[in-house]
């Protein structure tokens, strides 16, 4: 092709390119295999999510079986007993909870084996095949979902074993899919290496890189809010928005996980994945459709438009007492807090700072998106000092969205005050079951919907943004400053946000409404 010429490449249609509303139930029996079944993630998140899907009827006892696999040599009943205490009652089904738990646990079978040897995976395949035969499933029509509740270091050997010994035998409408948890590498190089190793074994439509933030109710509402409401369309740009904050705060420290956390730090643990995924949904353009590939194409475009992070727009912190953990090195520079400004170089967002903030051992626990609008020109009511208009989406806890605006204070005098238009989920949707993120995402994997999962090129673009900064931190070129537990974090963080254009509102506090 000559220089200056354009070409259009047509992507081959994928099996899962369909709207969720057009989902058609599949008929082959379903095997869900949880690798790392004896670990904390499986006990606290994976199995409880499967239980709630079972109780709500999304997976049926007559066509699903669940297999646990780990190195620990225990019996089926041992695993069931370990899981039992984590299976909380489903809203509206409390009276039958014990019966439901008993029926669900009978769906679980345990297979013990190593993660890198043939013997264990042949035993696993034998157990799955016996179940499929018992259901008179036609060879090739059954469905196998492998959930890797494991450290990323064992992903390559486990995937190799699955590919060699546990695949669905032929393609007669059935499938084999794998679900992998973050962290997907520690930087661009390691992430690309991991992607290449898994990519050699499985096609992209078979790989589900799970980020549980994409399963949160309010995160999933972002696209609906932006693209299904007319009044947001003309406002959502640099002409009206001053800055956007995406915040994650925890009021506790590493809680005995210091040694693990010290390998990653708050940027790798929270900002590079959870908060960046939220940024994509806040900043992306409207996709052509809701087909997964169209949505993920737009997210990649946003990531590729992010400018390199400037050193003077980063504040790192480490709470006092973090190094007291015996598993943390005495000279650790690992940040437990970070605030940084990301800037998107495109027509919609040029000049609008995206302030990303995450920290541990702070004075509150919350995750939210705060869209702050510009000042009203010609302020005839002299009320700018009271605060700007803001649209706030509270992701957790107390899910809500509210619009902060200026109104006349009731009374005979003409005084203005800050108030809000409020949609609090606990109040508005009292009878509705709001699912946990893992429930929704596991259901998506069963249905073959990859919209809420991270694509390989998306992962690469995310690491390209943060790897230069992370390497500077690892080399000690950017230092973490100490801050007191229970505080707002380093003083420099608020100063950075103010410098970027954020205007703090004084005298107004949003109070979640009571039932």
From TrEMBL:
Any one Gene Ontology molecular-function term assigned to this protein's record: NADP binding
Can you tell which superkingdom this protein's organism belongs to?
Answer: Eukaryota
UniProt keywords, alphabetically: Carbohydrate metabolism, Cytoplasm, Glucose metabolism, NADP, Oxidoreductase
Q: Does the keyword Cytoplasm apply?
A: yes
One Pfam family matching this protein: G6PD_N
Enzyme Commission number(s) from the entry: 1.1.1.49
Q: What does this protein do?
A: Catalyzes the rate-limiting step of the oxidative pentose-phosphate pathway, which represents a route for the dissimilation of carbohydrates besides glycolysis.
Protein name per Swiss-Prot or TrEMBL? Glucose-6-phosphate 1-dehydrogenase
């Amino acid at each position: 092709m000559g220089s200056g010429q354009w070409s259009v490449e047509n992507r081959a249609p994928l099996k899962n390119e369909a709207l969720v509303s057009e989902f058609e139930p599949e008929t082959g029996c379903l095997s869900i295999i949880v690798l790392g079944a004896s670990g904390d993630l499986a006990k606290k998140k994976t199995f409880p999510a499967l239980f709630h899907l079972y109780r709500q009827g999304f997976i049926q006892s007559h066509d699903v079986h669940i297999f646990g696999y780990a190195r620990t040599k225990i019996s089926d009943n041992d695993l069931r007993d370990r899981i039992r205490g984590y299976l909380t009652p489903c809203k509206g089904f409390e009276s039958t909870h014990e019966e439901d738990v008993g029926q669900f646990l009978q769906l679980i079978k345990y297979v013990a084996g190593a993660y890198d040897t043939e013997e264990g995976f042949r035993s696993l395949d034998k157990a799955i095949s016996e179940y499929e035969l018992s259901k008179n499933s036609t060879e090739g029509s059954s469905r196998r979902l492998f959930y890797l509740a494991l450290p990323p270091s064992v992903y390559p050997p486990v995937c190799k074993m699955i590919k060699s010994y546990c695949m669905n035998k032929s393609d007669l409408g059935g499938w084999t899919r794998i679900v992998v948890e973050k962290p997907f590498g520690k930087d661009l190089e390691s992430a690309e290496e991991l992607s290449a190793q898994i990519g050699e074994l499985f096609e992209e439509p078979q790989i589900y890189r799970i980020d549980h933030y994409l399963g949160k109710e309010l995160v999933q509402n972002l696209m609906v809010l932006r693209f299904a409401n007319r009044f947001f369309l003309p406002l959502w740009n640099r002409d009206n928005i001053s800055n956007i904050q995406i915040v994650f705060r925890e009021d506790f420290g590493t809680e005995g996980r210091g040694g693990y956390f010290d390998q990653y730090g708050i940027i790798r643990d929270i900002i590079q994945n959870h908060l960046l995924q939220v940024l994509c949904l806040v900043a992306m353009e409207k996709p052509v459709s809701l087909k997964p590939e169209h949505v993920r194409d737009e997210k990649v475009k946003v990531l590729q438009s992010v400018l390199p992070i400037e050193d003077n727009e980063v504040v790192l912190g480490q709470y006092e007492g973090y190094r007291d953990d015996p598993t943390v090195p005495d000279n650790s520079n690992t940040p437990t807090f970070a605030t940084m400004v990301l800037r998107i170089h495109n027509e919609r967002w040029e000049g609008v700072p995206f302030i990303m903030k995450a920290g541990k051992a702070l004075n509150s626990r919350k995750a939210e998106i705060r869209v702050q609008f510009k000042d009203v020109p010609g302020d005839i009511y002299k009320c700018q000092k009271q605060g700007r208009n803001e649209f706030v989406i509270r992701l957790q806890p107390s899910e809500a969205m509210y619009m902060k605006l200026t109104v006349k204070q009731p009374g005979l005098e003409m005084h203005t005050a800050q108030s809000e238009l409020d949609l609090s989920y606990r109040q508005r949707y009292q009878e509705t079951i709001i699912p946990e993120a893992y429930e929704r995402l596991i259901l998506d994997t069963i249905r073959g919907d990859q919209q809420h999962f991270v694509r390989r090129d998306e992962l690469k673009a995310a690491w390209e943004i943060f790897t230069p900064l992370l390497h500077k931190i690892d080399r000690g070129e950017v230092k973490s400053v100490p801050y007191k537990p229970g505080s707002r974090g380093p003083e420099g963080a608020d100063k950075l946000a103010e410098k970027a254009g954020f205007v703090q509102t004084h005298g107004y506090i949003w109070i979640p409404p009571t039932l």
